[in-house]
Structure formats: structure tokens, C-alpha cells
Amino acid sequence: MDRNSGNLTISMVAEVSGVGVETIRYYQRRGLLREPPRIDGSIRRYGTSDIDRLRFIKAAKRLSFSLDEIAQLLRLEDGLHCDEAASIATARLEDVRSRLSDLQKIEQSLTGLLNACGARTATIRCPLIAALCDES
Q: How many helices, marked H, and strands, marked E, lie in the chain?
């Protein structure tokens, strides 16, 4: 069967887009992806636009957009709402920068603790474990 024909089964769409069948069904329940009608009581048929939409969702998730944010972006895809899309992306970027700052602090703390482990002298207690115990 030609994958560009618009006559794809859900399993074919899943394979081509790189997401699972249950993920597709979940996205349909969330309203992120249309659920095609059954033609003559047959199985549902999908098209390449469904694959494109799934690839968009997958790419947006990689950039840490939530499914709610992705739904908002999908509603803005007509090209007339760039400012609104940019606002959503700006909020996501601020969140990423905040998490990055937190991760850098964690990295510094762990580096310091590991250095203390390497520099320990005849103490009985591991400096890393002692520091973590003192944190609580």
C-alpha cells in the first residue's frame, strides 16, 4: 500500500511517524489528532497530513512543550498567530533556562561532593553521603 495515498491504517501511521498506536489513540482523545471516520464500517484510514501532525507533536515534545501547549500551537498553525505562538515559545524558553540554571547548580554541588570524596583523608564517613544526610 502506498504510504502517501491517504489510505493508511493506524499501525502504518504509527510506524512511519515513530509513535505507538496507543499514543496515537491518546492524542486523538486529547484532541491533538483527528479520528477519521470508519468508511463503510471498515477500519479508519489516515493520510499523510496525520503523519505530519504526529511528527510536529513529537518535535514539540522534544523541545519540552507540554501537550496543552502543543494543542495551543496546533490551534495557531494557520500562520496568522505568530505573536501568540512566539509567546508560548518564550514561556517555554524561560522555563528551560530556569531548569538549566537549576541543573547547573546541581552539577556544581555534585562536583564539589565528588571532589570531597576524592580528597577525603582518614575520615570514617563518606563526605558525599554525610553531606546528603546533613541536607535533610
A: 6, 0
